[in-house]
Design goal:
The chain has 404 residues and is mainly beta. Helices cover 13% and strands 34% of the residues. The chain has five helices and 19 strands. Strand 10 and strand 11 form a beta hairpin. The protein starts with 14 loop residues before the first strand and ends in a 9-residue tail after the last strand.
Length: 404
């Protein structure tokens, strides 16, 4: 029977059902993660310094993030522009018999109606840097077709072709007053095929346009950042009365505001002016990138998020949407552009537990844009602070005191 003795000198103290609120702050650094297991700092799991028990709420208290991100990158599907040359310049129409120009014309006529793929480098651009990049990349895209054609048909002309810089007919300019980009070609008619299926076709074998996780009407390639819609942009022809001009003054291209004019071509000692082709983007340029991103923490998400509208049987026959319930813990604005760092705090984003969470020891974090792509901080670290409110049970303190 002695084994049934449950007597103890340490009796349980009854719970008074009173709790003291304890504040605990936890500073989390992205560089403290297991980098071998989580090489991408936008998605990782990390162990907290201790067990946090009886958690009443968790709030994002403060944060600091680098702005050294790429506005344009392959992973964000916004580095590719697709265009076609629809009417190449024909030298024989102007009595010109230069063999190099004739071969270039033959190459472009053989490629009519086929897409040229222009891809810019990853990074952040100013408007002038963007127009210079586009000018060089569009000409390079044409060179990848023209140069092999010359190599196959008359390789002896390659030295002269290369000495002249190859194909250099595309010119892209930025109107600083209107804040719009203008595309021009000094000899060939072209179209920017913003409605190309290559932007959304998963069978695009070159891999230049990876599909978004979510469909989007704004971030579906490079064109919307340049000021285009999903409609193809066709060109206008100018024969020099006048040539396309920015009337606010000189540009970085040609004095007196003339940014597009044909190369001076001579035949029988006469200067021939051939027509040029140009177009203006319908909307202003946007090089700022995503204005915000979402922070997901597994088990703490409280923000409901809409999703891009889709014309489907579900949306047309029900009064529901395809939005996501409890998709994120916090939504953070990006208030600056590279290269810098931003700090903020006092976010109202929080998770309230009722009843309190028994124990929290680790968190699973994910930082993404609205379309689902992860934020790419490259190798730059970031940090944020979580505010835990915990309930500490208080013992029953009903006792009396007396003096001897």
């Amino acid at each position: 029977m002695s084994r049934m003795n449950v007597a103890t000198n340490h009796p349980l103290i009854p719970n008074s059902q009173q709790y003291m609120v304890v504040d605990q702050y936890v500073s989390i650094h992205s560089e403290d993660r297991n980098i071998d297991k989580y090489p991408n700092s936008s998605e990782f799991e990390i162990e907290l310094p201790q067990d946090y028990c009886n958690v009443q709420s968790v709030t994002l208290n403060s944060w600091t993030f680098p702005a050294n991100y790429n506005v344009f990158s392959f992973s964000q599907n916004n580095t590719t522009l697709i265009f076609e040359i629809t009417k190449p310049y024909n030298p024989t129409d102007y009595g010109i018999t230069d063999p190099t120009l004739l071969l270039i014309s033959d190459a472009l006529y053989g490629y009519c109606g086929k897409p040229f793929i222009c891809s810019i480098g990853d990074g952040y651009y100013t408007p002038d840097q963007m127009t210079t990049e586009l000018t060089n990349r569009m000409n390079l895209a044409v060179n990848t077709i023209v140069r092999p054609y010359i190599q196959a048909n008359n390789p002896g002309l390659l030295p002269a072709f290369d000495l002249a810089g190859g194909y250099t007919q595309f010119v892209v300019a930025y109107n600083q007053v209107g804040q719009k980009i203008w595309f021009g070609n000094k000899s060939d008619q072209f179209v920017i095929t913003n409605d190309s299926a290559l932007y959304t076709d998963g069978k695009f074998t070159t891999g230049i346009c990876p599909k978004h996780i979510l469909s989007s009407f704004t971030n579906w390639g490079l064109p919307p950042y340049l000021g285009f819609t999903r409609c193809s942009a066709t060109t206008f022809e100018s024969n020099g009365n006048p040539y396309p001009t920015f009337y606010y003054g000189d540009t970085m291209y040609v004095p007196n505001g003339v940014w597009l004019s044909p190369d001076q071509i001579h035949s029988n000692n006469n200067t021939i002016n051939i027509p040029v082709y140009y177009l203006e983007c319908p909307y202003k340029i946007n090089l700022l990138g995503h204005p915000y991103f979402y922070m997901e923490i597994a088990g703490m998400n409280t923000i409901d998020e809409t999703s891009p509208y889709q014309d489907s049987v579900f949306t047309s026959t029900t009064n529901q949407t395809n939005g996501v319930v409890k998709s994120a813990f916090a939504k953070l604005a990006v208030p600056t552009t590279p290269v810098t760092q931003w700090f903020d705090g006092g976010s109202p984003s929080s998770k309230v537990y009722n009843p309190p969470a028994e124990r929290i020891r680790k968190i699973s974090l994910r930082l993404r844009y609205h379309d689902g792509t992860l934020v790419d901080f490259n190798s730059f670290p970031y940090s944020f602070t979580l505010h835990f409110k915990m309930l500490l049970p208080q013992p029953n303190s009903n006792y009396k005191t007396f003096s001897p």
